[in-house]
Amino acid sequence: MTEEAFVELAPVTGIQQACRLLGKPRSSHYRRLRPAPAGQARPPRPAPPNALSRAERDQVAAVLHSERFADKSPAQVWATLLDEGVYLCSESTMYRILRERGEVRQRRRQAQHPPRVRPELVAHGPNEIWSWDITKLHGPHRGVYYDLYVMIDIYSRYVVGWQVAARESGELAEEFIAEAIARIGVAPRAVHADRGTAMTSKPVAALLADLNIDRSHSRPKVSNDNPFSEAQFKTLKHCPAFPGRFGSIADARAFCAEFFTYYNHDHRHRGIGLHTPASVHFGTVEKIREERAKVLDAAYAANPDRFRSRPTPPTIPGAAWINEPPATTQIS
């Protein structure tokens, strides 16, 4: 498609302008005009006339390997020789010569960490996968913080549990998760979190193991592995009523109680078809969609010219993913 557009555009705008507009390198265009003969590879690029000869390159390598400079970087060697009135080549050429010999590497042993497993979780309905995290709320004075624990269902976006505590600990996290499960009355298939100390603590691990709930953790320093909790915290802290600081832990708890009631029952979430999390979590979506469809049908019947096509209410996704795999490897 790009080549066809280029053929049409080049006679009008010129080759340079056509390449710029289509994002096509001019070198690719000219190379296409001079194809290599069939069955033959393109000739190697000739060495520039100002390149170092083989003898000169060997001399530079010998200097770099010498006892005097064996433990110094090319930058140190280049500057030292220059101060002595000697110029062999540029610093980048020294690196190039060493690279050709496979001698550019870390001198010290480097720790080799095995790659972390990319978490992949899918929920096809409420109470299958929960995600939780902890965020800091500013207290009345500098250095005073309260810890907000929030557990969210990734399919419905319903906040199944929250608490504000004066500190972060594994014991409090264990109580928080146990209370959320008791309140909802059902345990999820898996609970996802990042790798904070409370999330990876022994009390939490023991609780989930006892309840036969799978544990899942984000990779280190990969916030996208916990997108639902991160997005929920953004909604919280971008709320117009969210204060910069809370006067006390009681103030923080009072605000969160009001906010999460609003979030669950009044906030229309785009990720779930502009329904409220409570509607999705407790199964009233279809009834609401039917009523929305009636309103849109009436609007279309009254003024069809105002619409490009018959409007329909938005749908909710059939599944909610944490790190959806490529389409060719998706599992049901």
TrEMBL record:
Disordered: annotated span: 26-56, 306-332
UniProt xrefs under PROSITE patterns: INTEGRASE
Domain Integrase catalytic: from-to ranges: 122-285
InterPro entries linked to this entry: Integrase_cat-core, RNaseH-like_sf, RNaseH_sf, Transpos_IS3, Transposase_IS3/IS150/IS904
Protein name: IS3 family transposase
PANTHER family: TRANSPOSASE INSF FOR INSERTION SEQUENCE IS3B-RELATED (PTHR46889), TRANSPOSASE INSO FOR INSERTION SEQUENCE ELEMENT IS911B-RELATED (PTHR46889:SF4)
Molecular function terms, GO-annotated: nucleic acid binding
Top-level taxon: Bacteria
Upper classification of the organism: Bacteria, Bacillati, Actinomycetota, Actinomycetes, Micromonosporales
Pfam family membership, one: rve
Protein species of origin: Natronosporangium hydrolyticum
Biological processes annotated in GO: DNA integration
